[in-house]
Input
Amino acid sequence: MAGLSQTPNLKLNNRLLSLDVFRGLTVAAMILVNNPGDWGHIYAPLEHAAWNGCTPTDLIFPFFLYIVGVSIVFALQTKAADAAQHGKLLLTVIKRGAILIGLGWFLALYPHFNFGTMRIPGVLPRIGLVFAICGVIFVKTERKTQLILFWTFLIVYFLLMTLVPVPGTGYANLQPETNLGAWLDRTILGTPHLWKEAVTWDPEGLLGTLPACATTLFGILIGTWLKRKDKDESTKVAWMFTAGLGAVILGLIWDLFFPINKALWTSSYVLYAGGLATLGLAFFYWIIDVQGHKGFTRPFVVYGVNAITVFFLSAFIVKTSALIKVGDKKQAVLQYVYQHVFAPYFSPINASLAWAICFVLFFMLILSWMYKRKIIIKV
Output
């Protein structure tokens, strides 16, 4: 990671507080659903939909990519207005994207570093690739072009997935192993480099980058609206609620013939999740930044300002703990703690949830310490 800052001159309150809160809530939810005590005992809302459909868990990743889009506007808009800075700015964007991809690949390799079976797609690689693409789009294009690209990505992806015959299958389809995206991943990346749980397809595959970029462009469009100085706050919020509700409705209509599906990142899913994200951000913006109700924000802000840090560290700690064996059965240390501290005192599903909540609280303590000392690690 790059950009460690620890200085008394760092002004955290210059950030858009509602955006940090929304990001923090999203990342905390990501940590919660990624770290149950027992993967066999999870409450339904904390699991992904089996295929088509959308649970609260399915909203976490698109919410984060949407937030990336809003953040791009707040981070780059002033510099992007100066054409003389574009070259330097584009290099910075591409560098940050490459670092995110590199961090994802490090986690995929760690601790055995077997390049022959390393998963190439993944959450951090998708964030890095989408950030780089959309960052370049934001710097080099105007709002009208960004809006055109948003709809172009959604429509082109819909046409590819529903009309193009899949080689070896002979017809277009949206099934896990035989859709066009799965075929493309197997052809270009090879099955050893895909998601190990599925083997023959990957939920963060190559073709899905197209609609994932649309999710971030959605955030860019809303972020640009929020930054406008010719509109009062009430007007901004009213139009955000209108746009969010409209996107949800359009997503549900599109769902009738292009199902909402997180693994495929379908166009209907982009509109549905992006619409809900817009409603959520509008709510937080109105309550926190406009009305000034900030007393409840601290726990979420500490997660929000170091979002990538906590995501990386949580995965790194889990992988590292698997190397440390304890007890008579030589269990991984975290599993040993779960079996002896949580499992005996709760029902299986509640023990699993209690462990996940404690995991979130554990990192909140670390992040609170970092926040108190104004430590923000930026990629």
